[in-house]
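User: Run a structure prediction on this.
Assistant: Running it now.
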Amino acid sequence: MEKYNQVKELLKKYDQEQLLVKYDEMTVEQKDQLLDQILEINFDGIKDLYELTKVKTTMGEDKISPISYVDKSKLSKEEYEELEELGVNEIKQGKLAAVTMAGGQGTRLGYDGPKGTFDIGLDTHQSLFELICETLKEAKKKYDVFVPWYIMTSHENHQRTVEFFEKNKYFGYPKNEVMFFMQGEIPTISMEGKILVNEKGFPRLAADGHGGVFESMLQSGALDDMKKRKVEWVFVGPVDNPLVNMVDEILVGLAKSKKCMAAGKSVVKARPEERVGVFCTRNGKPSVVEYTEITEEMANQRDENGELVYGESHINCNLFHIDRINKIAETKLPYHVAFKKANYLDEKGNLVEGKEPNSYKFEAFIFDAFTSLDSMAILRVKREDEFAPVKNATGVDSPETSRELYKKFHGIK
């Protein structure tokens, strides 16, 4: 009763009493779970986030400039071999780990399950997880070392992801080289700043974005595990790109040669209006400018060679030195606001169905970590070699386009 009274007082103070709308109908165990969840919420932080929803995102006074990059396809034989040797030495010494961000569901694809378990339609019926794992198995053959694989799940898909790996015997990769960890969650709020209640009567939580990967690695013990293995470089990439190259000796070699604490891969924008973030420098620091921020003039600007000045698309394939991950994890990245549709229970316990955007969710973006760096190495790679995202059910970046790119790259008829 003491805990309940404490929660009641807290909710009254912050005008969030709707969080107890289903309390009386719950079992003793559920009541205790709900009270614990509420006590974990940072209500002052939620107030600050609500204020964020009233601010229009602009570049303001930020000075945006193009970023320098190295084009992998234009390296001379000597340059390539030098970077390759540097990278191979690091990998062979067991200094590289791979992180796959796999917290999403396949909802946009019309698929009920963790996105990593999705079959893109190859004759082999391999899932995204298995296709990505092939990179690690190839690395074992090439470098005679197992690159440890860390998979970031979400509360929503963690159990099903682990069960999928168990069922598929980890795709032939050693179980002791695979570790799962969960990303953080943050409450979703209404347009009035009220924390939403889900259909079961609990706070409606949403994953905190791919920028939450650093803090989640720290809190889950994944970083400690890497340190025990003497890992120095951590590749962080998405689950929805079957062509993602997680063990790239050139990327590792480039970061090492330039003495950078991070490196990122880019592909040239397909067209000026493509809806992607692009690498840049912001006030002299490495950054990514969102397609919602960039002006039409900047998007169309070309250099003397006819190339887009702001044309280095950020494909969410980044390499970080473990020391830098520690520092990023200890300082919270800023949250960005997304206006989304959500179903929730109102203050009387009635279900409200979100047919139009009606709520705010908050996400941290991985590229906000770049501004803490003095420099960052950017490696331009060929889109057809490394970028076949699966984001939409049909059309651009769909299973069909991803499958064709994958087959073409691997020479599959």
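The first strand starts at residue 64 and ends at 65.
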